[in-house]
Known about the structure:
The protein is of the alpha/beta class. It has six helices and six strands; from the N terminus they run βαβαβαβαββαα. Strand 4, helix 4 and strand 5 form a beta-alpha-beta unit.
Amino acid sequence: MSQTRILVLVGSLRAASINRRLAEAAVKTAPEGVELSLYEGLGDIPFYNEDIDVAGEVPAAAQALRDAVAASDAVLLVTPEYNGTLPAMLKNGIDWASRPYGAGALKGLPAAVISASISPNAAKWSHDDAVKALGVAGAEVVKDASLHFGTIGQRFVETHPADDAEAITQLAATVRQLAEATKVRANA
């Protein structure tokens, strides 16, 4: 039985980010046969520019992301909300992984989005923008795997999400649904 590989892209560069902690907790929920890996390096990728997206000259950081996405069976985005939308570096990662248009690494790849913010809105605007960008990029968004966490500044101020039974249950369900979507894709 082959391993299902899910690449996790975190929309916050801050080391102590609660979004990063949610992603770390999600990694721990992986069922047998599923491997989640946190992608490091989104902050190193230059902003997408078609002038530098030239065969043989693609910036190494952008090519590394494309290769990581292409080697994955699914992607999981974990995003905060910055000024009512998703962080620029996460959108930039989607842009690089979507190229070349129609044949990028995201094409047909199952994807899910977890959003979290300090507001009760639970970063739903960011979530919706991420779903839209992934869909336009050609990913197959698994909407049933969506997950939103609100008021995280209060909920996780003293507790890591990995120690919150409800959060672990929700994260595990999202990971399971995304992994199941990879099987549906493989059997199509």
